[in-house]
Known about the structure:
- Two copies of one chain form a homodimer.
- By secondary structure, chain A is an alpha/beta fold.
- The first copy, chain A, has helices at 2-8, 12-23, 29-37, 56-69, 98-101, 120-134, 148-156, 170-176, 179-182, 196-209, 231-248, 250-279, 282-293, 299-310; strands spanning 44-50, 74-80, 106-112, 138-144, 159-164, 185-188, 220-222.
- Chain A is built from 14 helices and seven strands.
- In chain A, strand 2 (74-80), helix 5 (98-101) and strand 3 form a beta-alpha-beta unit.
Amino acid sequence: MKLVDDLLKGNRVALSKTISKIENDGPESEEAVGLLFKHTGRAYYIGVTGPPGAGKSTLVDRLANRILDRKEKLGIIAVDPTSSFSGGALLGDRVRMSDLSTREGVFIRSMATRGSLGGLATTTKDVALCFDAFGMDYVVIETIGVGQVELDIADTCDTTIVVLVPESGDSIQAMKAGLMEIADIIVVNKGDREGAEQMVAELKFISRLRERDDEWEYPILQTEAINDKGVDELLTAILSHKKHLKKTGKFELNRKRQIKLRVKELVEKKIKLHLEEQVLSEEDLNRYVHRAYKKKTTPFQIAEEIFKKIK
Amino acid sequence: MKLVDDLLKGNRVALSKTISKIENDGPESEEAVGLLFKHTGRAYYIGVTGPPGAGKSTLVDRLANRILDRKEKLGIIAVDPTSSFSGGALLGDRVRMSDLSTREGVFIRSMATRGSLGGLATTTKDVALCFDAFGMDYVVIETIGVGQVELDIADTCDTTIVVLVPESGDSIQAMKAGLMEIADIIVVNKGDREGAEQMVAELKFISRLRERDDEWEYPILQTEAINDKGVDELLTAILSHKKHLKKTGKFELNRKRQIKLRVKELVEKKIKLHLEEQVLSEEDLNRYVHRAYKKKTTPFQIAEEIFKKIK
């Protein structure tokens, strides 16, 4: 495929076009990702998540500049939970990244969640693969750390950074939302605000409650992204976590787990399609459903009958 | 099944035990739900969702008391996004409902999301069916309106109420999170707080932006749940929405859509199990995955091969 060849040669327009194909889930997107797959595996995946207003975009911006200073390349995927009817108006945050986007070696892509829920996690992962095959050293994925989709994306990353701000109850909320369980590094951003010290203390307390099966003790860092403070320490922590993953073999395990997940998703998608196109027409299904609505059968009996037909 | 017979006779202990079986996804749970299914269809499902701290529990408490005053019965399911390691400590909110739980005709169940993500939406729906078969007139499901699971649960309900509080930016956040698209009724709770009027104005503005394919114009109500204000108006709005659904035929369409969804879930579950147990062992899959990790194949090629084996 010419598009893929061009991408692999380092053509940014081809990269952009391939990403668009993936986002639109066009007919060639699966083929393209399949071709790109063999050229992936070099990039390191960093997830940045946390509640809205924690300053994730600014932190990513500063971190990205550090990476570029080291003459390394990166791709950034910003997943925005935009409502379908509010359109792109709320993406204004990204404007702050404009300085960054003029630098060489970086590629930024915003993706909206509404309207594509469900498929979003897969799309994001495929775009990450594009960046990887393109030759990026790092792929940074920024999400709002709530729903399953976001957790799923974070799960894709080698290092997941949870960003919080000193705000009463925020550490409790993060804990409730399960953020602490996915964190490899915790950042208390806006560290000049009142309550920052207390929050770090709370988080240290919480970290002792956590039972994790690995030996990694996540660092709790203080940053002021807006003033570019604490960002070097963050990069150091990321690289230290990377070392840990490689040393313990968890890096390979994670990657294999992701491949397995992807295979399962693809098989399920194929079966679903087969089911809808070959085994059971929408009309037949509707007839079944009507009978269940009238309490003449149950969803369980219907499922059993359909399953027998497949076999 | 004796348990089901007892439940249908109105035995509360049997109801409680059946719900536990469903929560633990025990071997008999599918059979129990299947038997109960034919006795469902009478209850009206109300979803209450919104950000943490909006006062959902208090509002549900007041609403429940109104329903009981009308000599009607209800079941309440409170879905708490509790972290698995924080345990039940954060469920303290529910204590406020203790007065309610002493009244006759109400049954309250809290369910934690962590650890059961993915299965949670199904579990919640099955518990709702139990309440329905038990003879409840209403089933109220309370969730934090974020992730896909919560949206999925809200989708199950006949009337979905989105609860917000006057707080700067809260209406924007709700919009971004897609809450406005699922709302049949919007409640601005803590209506005595500063900014309540402005928020109602904002929400009215947003509502005009919304394009929905039905003719229902969602009411925007102000309540002070803690002082029991505005709750009658809320109940009136719910009943008016119920009337609307019945009149337009959307009630039946919604219910059928839910049955269809359930059938599809069940079929997919069966296929998945069949795949894992009969077609492809974990060892075989791991061998495939290792080859993909070494870039000798791709997830797409593997999925194709597995799919061919199934056929």
